[in-house]
Design brief:
10 strands; alpha/beta; single chain; four-stranded mixed sheet; Lyase 2-enoyl-coa Hydratase, Chain  A, domain 2; binds hexanoyl-coenzyme A; 49% helix; 11 helices; six-stranded mixed sheet; globular; EC 4.2.1.150; 2-enoyl-CoA Hydratase, Chain A, domain 1
């Protein structure tokens, strides 16, 4: 499908989705959200795609938030639909059976920070800025920010960021665990691809099961999480990759995983 507001590329097993609305710093209007949703469907179905990277086109912004000019005149019903649709799209990222890496190349504010938080791994360039500035507009985060930010950085820091609307830089985001790595902007995509390649060299069924176990556990009590982990661990032993991985280790050679 042809896209107007995003770019979608496939390079050696890695799908790159770049939000591309430079005039409004890649702000998310409904049309862009629909295109992201469509791109996610395509990468989900495409067996060639093993890992997904999400970034922002240009050097200034990842995504500067939901599109304020589009939200301005929404009535409560439309606002609810908009929030629910964005939540559904971002949840699709979280539930996708493929790892998704956010390469945050500039402003990740409001809906942009929420998009990054729905991804499995977040890395950032030095010029990246994060924040949930919604209260400054008289609204609250609506694409999952009130739910994911406290799970990622803890309740106190999340409340501080959401109540004050403060923007933090990449170093601070690293310090509080909002991102896991900070690199030079020119190296950001290269680093995202390096992480993707490293993941693709492993048993991808195992990676998928690990994602599911972490996602289930983070939202459940520890007994439920442990129980899911043990079952997922057992499932690994029904795969060729487990046999190959362990045989390769014992034979002191590199494994050849087949994703089966
Ligand atoms: C619409 C936006 C936008 C946004 C930037 N622009 N962010 N348009 N929605 N979220 C537009 C500006 O209006 C401007 O358009 C152009 O992009 C360049 O932005 P400037 O402000 O001129 O750039 P700069 O001075 O460098 O400031 C960058 C900035 C600032 C700090 C990122 O643009 C900013 O504060 N943006 C809003 C951030 C924000 O509040 N995000 C949260 C939105 S609420 P023109 O036409 O003047 O050139 C949200 C809710 C999510 O995300 C949940 C919904 C359910």
């Amino acid at each position: 499908m042809e896209f107007k507001n995003i770019k979608l590329e496939l390079n050696e097993g890695v799908s790159l989705i770049a939000i591309d609305r430079p005039k409004s710093l890649n702000a998310l209007n409904l049309e862009t959200l629909k295109e992201i949703d469509q791109a996610l469907e395509e990468v989900k179905e495409n067996e060639e795609v093993k890992v997904v990277i999400i970034t922002g086109a240009g050097e200034k912004a990842f995504v500067a938030g939901a599109d304020i000019s589009e939200m301005k005149d929404m009535n409560p019903l439309k606002a609810k639909e908009f929030a629910e649709f964005g939540q559904k799209v971002f949840r699709k990222i979280e539930l996708m059976k493929k790892p998704v890496i956010a390469a945050v190349n500039g402003y990740a504010l409001g809906g942009g920070c929420e998009l990054a938080m729905a991804c499995d791994i977040r890395i950032a360039s030095h010029n990246a800025k994060f924040g949930q500035p919604e209260v400054g507009l008289g609204i609250i985060p609506g694409f999952g920010g009130t739910q994911r930010l406290p799970r990622i950085v803890g309740v106190s820091k999340a409340k501080e960021l959401i109540y004050t609307g403060d923007m933090i830089d990449a170093e601070e985001a690293l310090r509080i665990g909002l991102v896991s790595k900070v690199v030079e902007q020119e190296k950001l995509l290269e680093e995202a691809y390096n992480i993707a390649k490293k993941i693709m060299s492993k048993g991808m069924i195992a990676v998928r099961l690990a994602k599911e176990a972490i996602n289930i556990g983070i939202n459940a009590d520890i007994e439920t999480g442990m129980s899911y982990e043990a079952k997922a661990f057992a499932v690994c032993f029904a795969t060729e990759d487990q046999k190959e991985g362990m045989a390769a280790f014992l034979e002191k050679r590199a494994p050849k995983f087949v994703d089966k």
